[in-house]
Amino acid sequence: MKSARLLAAVSLAALVAACQPGTEAPATTADNPTVATVNGKAISRQLFDTYAQAVSGKAASELTDEQRQQALDNLIRAELIGAQAEKDGLTKTPDTAAMLELSRLNILQQEMSEKFLADKKATDQELRAEYETQVAALPKSEYKARHILVATQEFANSLIAQLDKGAKFETLAQRESLDSSKDNGGDVGWFTPDRMVPQFSAAVAALEKGQYTKAPVQTQYGWHVIRLDDMRDVQAPPFDAVKDRIDQIVQTKKFKAYADELLAAAKIEKKP
């Protein structure tokens, strides 16, 4: 039932592949026979296989007969709707034309990326070098803090005055904070500076363990009173644990370098 429901959904990528105007569908040949015709227009096996893969995540040969039939029915429905949309002139509206073009460019970029990188597998030396680059860019410390978020500077100052007189930070946070962390006494857990807005991170980094801010800290969310509960050094993950992610980064950089070469060689004129 889950697979059947999945096949009932028509994905954007599949619709683009099936219905995009100005793009020829794969021609039917002896090796790519017709699986259906819709008002005289042939739907090739290649188009059907691509559609089935897009909506199910499986090759058409891996689907049951019922699932393949449902996929074909949905592709026929998509073809009919697409043809009617073209007849109604929808492909000529600026928004639709722009979305279709962006979808076309996205698909072609993905295909070009796969072609370009097919014989450019990252070496272990490249992976190790990128790992060291990523580790060097990691924040050096992470912090555990609490905060109380309020709407005005004046109210934040009054809370600081209460803390100076011995009020318990957690109690004030539970009673006064506008942030959901109030339920945990203002505790926001462990975080690295890049995960918080700059003003918040800078204020935390300036504190000693156990200290709270003596002046309210303003961010786009309001006014904060912040206490640093703990801090520790950031531990880089072992190479083997992130090797796959590092490989993705290396491959992305290779394709970007190729795109940069195309950009440098192109004649481009930007209009104001």
Give me the secondary-structure topology:
Blueprint (H helix, E strand, L loop, with lengths): L1 H7 L3 H8 L14 E5 L2 E4 H12 L8 H23 L6 H24 L6 H14 L3 E10 L2 H12 L4 H8 L10 E5 L6 H8 L11 E3 L2 E12 L5 H27 L7
Antiparallel strand pairs: 1-2, 3-4, 3-6, 5-6
Helix pairs in contact: 1-4, 2-3, 3-4, 6-10
Description:
The protein is of the alpha+beta class and 272 residues long. It folds into three domains: 2-107, no CATH class; 124-135 and 238-261; 139-233, Chitinase A, domain 3 (Roll), CATH 3.10.50.40. It is built from ten helices and six strands, in the order ααββααααβααβαββα. It has helices at 2-8, 12-19, 45-56, 65-87, 94-117, 124-137, 153-164, 169-176, 198-205, 239-265, and strands spanning 34-38, 41-44, 141-150, 187-191, 217-219, 222-233. It has a four-stranded antiparallel sheet with strand order 4-3-6-5, sandwiched between helices. Helix 2 (12-19) runs antiparallel to helix 3 (45-56), helix 3 (45-56) crosses helix 4 (65-87) and helix 6 crosses helix 10 (239-265).
Proportion of beta-strand residues: 5-15%
Task: Characterize the overall form.
Answer: elongated
Number of domains: 3
Strand order of the largest sheet: 4-3-6-5
- Poorly predicted segments: 1-23
Mean pLDDT: 90
Largest sheet: 4 strands, antiparallel
State Rg: 28 Å
Number of helices: 10
Distance between the termini: 53 Å
Structural class: alpha+beta
| Percent helix | 40-55%
DSSP strand count: 6
Q: Give the topology string: H per helix, E per strand.
A: HHEEHHHHEHHEHEEH
